[in-house]
Every structure is written in C-alpha cells, then in structure tokens.
Amino acid sequence: MPLHSKAAAITAAKDFLEMVCVQHNAHVIGWMSDAGGEYKSDLFDRALLEKGIKIYQSAPRTPMQNGRAKRLGRTLMDKAESMRHQACIPDSWWEFVFAHATHIYNRTPVARLRWRTPHKMLKGELPNINHLHVFGCGAFVYLPATARANKMAPKSELMTYVGVAPGNERNFLFMRSTNAVFTAAHAVFDERHFPRCPKNRREPLENPFGRANPKPTTDRPGNPPDDIDSDDDVEHDHGYPHPQAQDGNPKHEEPKAPEEEPIQPNPPRMPSPVPPPAPRTPSLARNPPPPAPQCPGRAECCQNALRPPAVNIPAHPQRERRVPLRPGNVYGERRHPVEQLRDIESASRWQQTVGEAPRPPQPDTPDHVPGGFPDTSATPSEEDVQKMCKEGGANLVRFLMGKALTTSEPQYESVRNWSYKDIARLPQAEQKLW
Asked: Which fold has domain 6-123?
C-alpha cells in the first residue's frame, strides 16, 4: 500500500495485520522499526499493544540494527528508479513504479531463500510470470463501446503500461494521454516503444545470437576496408574493441579459411600510416573460387551469420485438369468453362463459335426502324419456334413482341386508346410527326 503521508502509517499497519490474520491464518508477534516519527506516536503504539505485539526499535541514526529492512528498501528503490528513467516516467507516478518493482521482487529468486522466490515461500506454488511486461512501454488497449466517444471513434488507443491491477494478474493498468488510469484485460504491447520519452524513443533490437548488433560498413569500391586487420573469428566476437598492441597497432590475423583450423596470428608489424590491403590477384578478383568467400571485416561476417540459409522450395505439383462433361453444350461438351468465357468475350471467337456471317445493311423501312417491331405477317414454322425458344436471344423477343401487337388497324380505333405499339406500326414519316 503506498503511503502518501506519514500519518497513513497507522492505517497501513492495521490493514497489514488484518490481512495476515485473515489471508494466512497467522499472527504477528513482534514489530521492528527504526523509531521514526511515524512509528512513535501514541496511536501507533496503542494499536500494536492491543494486538499483543511486542515493539522493537533501533537506536537513532543506527540503520545497521535494522539492516534487512534498509537493504530491501534500497533494492526496491534501485529497481524503481531504473524502470522509471528507462521509460521517462514523471516523478508523480512513483506509486505505480514502486508497486511494479515490489511485484517483480516477489517473483525473483533470492539467495537468502536458497534461490526460491518470496511468492513460493508464502503460497507454496511457483509464480506465474507470463503476464509481466516492460514497465512504461506502449500498448494499444482495446476500448469497449461504452468507453468510446462515438461509433466512428477508434477501437484502440495507445497508452502507457504502469503495472498489474491489484487482485487479478490478468488485468493491467494503463495511463492514458489525459493522465487517467485505465484498467483493461486486452492489449497489444510494444515493449520497445516508450510513449513518454521525447520523440517516442525506441530501444534497439537485440541480436538473436547474443552479440552486439553489427556496425554498418563504410567501405567503398576501390578503397581498402577500414577493419581489414580486425578479428574475423565470429565465435569470439562480442562487439567489444580489440586490445591494442604495445606499439599502438592492432593485431593482424590472416582471414579465416573455410576449414576449421586454428588461426595463427602474424607478428606485429611496424607502424605505418595506412595498413596495406590483403594481396589480391586479378584472376581471383574476377573469378572467385567456389568455396565461401573470405570475410574482410567483422561487419560482413556478422551479416553473413545473420543471413538465413537458402531453402530450396519444391516446385508446385502439376496435376491433370479434369474438365467437367456438359452434354448438349453449344460451346463444346468437353471444353473448360474459362476457355469458353474467353472465346465468348472475343468478337472474332464469338463469330467463329456461333457461325454467324456478317449481316448486310438493313434498309431504313418501318419494319427495321430502331425501336420498332418486325412484320408478323410471315408466320414461322413450329420447328423454328422451338429452336428460338431453346436458343433465346433477339429473334425470340421480336417474335413474341410481334405476336403481342394488335391486329386491328389504328385508323379504325380511337386515338385516345393508341399505345406505343400502334405508333410503331405507322410509316416512318408519321412516326416522326408523332
């Protein structure tokens, strides 16, 4: 429990004693303190004496007599300050920092407990650390519908992670941009991003091989590499500067051969302003040998070590396509539907498939006026009608519309009862007047 003032010490002590009695079925028999002002009041002493607790106090300005509590306070202070400075957390968030530091300490093995955790000693079970995250990192927290401004508001918000909610390790505490504490159970953490730091600083990625990140090379074509005399042994390279010889020149080693053989260093050379590059023959430079090329520097060797090995991806298996059989299909019974669609969309293929000849120009007569109807005087045979019904198309539409026209002459009926069909039967000159 965080104490915002020394007067709250008596309330926190009463709550602690009640928690020990109820949760762990135990009783406190002694209370050790450094005789501070918050522990020497009459109310505090009376609260302990009523419980039958014996009071122990160290001498003034003698922290050695209360060393265990002082060391624990220093440990928690170091942990809290380290996390606070890394995440650029303000001083006003001290209670969240110390609560998270205490939560981590209770789940950390301690040498005094034979490398067991305080959580294990108190509850008799191993602690669960899957819920732990970097303090002060950014997290995209899911906002329920009741916490959004409107239906068009985003469903998540970038917040700062400030610890675990008390009472349930599955709930997390976050600080919004308005300095309001928000409790949520669903969030996506970005442990390399710290929103409270200036310019949203990000931590560098760790090398999966346990070494420092390779430095970018500054070599240019035609110039000797800067680290030609550096150590090429990737196994013992940890990113630290190599020791210098007594004469001020770095140690020179031959490039590592493809075979695993011990590398014999050459004797130190005389000081020279520019180290000469390794001798190279024109033929070897143009046509390198089949084995792996030699690494001229540490950066290139690290890059080659980080590069994943080439994987031969097998070719896509070829299988025989089974075309569906469609009896009676006018485009072909054993043709693939994709090929049929391709032929239909092409004008030349369409004429070749259907077998239509180019139509001659139609005279401009009333029977062939655009939007008009054909003459229905010629009655098709029954076979033609069945063929038209099977194939469909414009011929069937013209035939049906022609049958729908009235057989009576327009001039013998009232003009008020005329329709578009009656006007379409008139000559072209009269249709223009209408």
From this structure: Nucleotidyltransferase; domain 5 (3.30.420)
